[in-house]
UniProtKB/TrEMBL annotation:
InterPro entries: Kinase-like_dom_sf, MAPK, Prot_kinase_dom, Protein_kinase_ATP_BS, Ser/Thr_kinase_AS. GO terms for molecular function: ATP binding; MAP kinase activity. It comes from Salix koriyanagi. This is mitogen-activated protein kinase. Transmembrane segments: none annotated. Its EC number is 2.7.11.24.
Amino acid sequence: MATLVEPPNGIRPRGKQYYSMWETVFEVDSKYVPIKPIGRGAYGVVCSSINRETNEKVAIKKINNVLENKIDALRTLRELKLLRHIRHENVIALKDVMLPVHRTSFKDVYLVYELMDTDLHQIIKSTQPLSNDHCKYFIFQLLRGLNYLHSANILHRDLKPGNLLVNANCDLKICDFGLARTSRGNEQFMTEYVVTRWYRAPELLLCCDNYGTSIDVWSVGCIFAEILGRKPIFPGTECLNQLKLIISVLGSQNDTDLKFIDNPKARRYIKTLPYARGVHLSHLYPHADPLAIDLLLRMLVFDPTKEN
């Protein structure tokens, strides 16, 4: 639980309160009353809170020492710039950004989001049964939110179960826009890390210079399969192993399907892999609705130029 504490320097600025959770001190606007910590990551700590002015429950994310690391600062800036313009029921809402007491010497950033109950990763690894209707509703909402982002020329670039928040009503919202970018056509983005490996599209694994919305669609396919099977479909240990796992399921690709690879070394590597017949997804997921398998086949396409 959150504990009200004195300011670290003993001086309480007007309009601020200090709370301690998980050995972390939160400096929050007085209208917020933190309840308890609900998550921790490399960035810092997230706590649930109540806005006393509206009686609304929210999540406060404290990003520690945000300016010490250029990459962390850039990710935070991207999230702020994008979420302040995005309004969709399947995308997490940024409610507030708390202004620091000293704008020239602050270290931490506090972002306030709508509060959700859990994430899809926790649901998948739980023992809770997931029906066909659950699966349909989750994927419908994910595609609906993604269609909105893509229509606004936004690539999320890090879709995975842990970045999909869910509440008790099974409402789903896309979160974590630290790697997202705006795109207006085929642009070269490959100067930085994108997409957690297990959800990474072939064109990213093969170091293609240009990519587009297909990378997010591939990630959705991997998430879809993970809901159906309750485990990742391509749990690669490193990039080359990831490619081998993909080929083992989708089967070896012909020369036409490899034309999109603009890196000659990458194309040669794919051709050296042992022949694989592939596995039909209906065999991997025998209890899945045939329509779900059909949709999944349209998402997990090796050649992004052939996406259905």
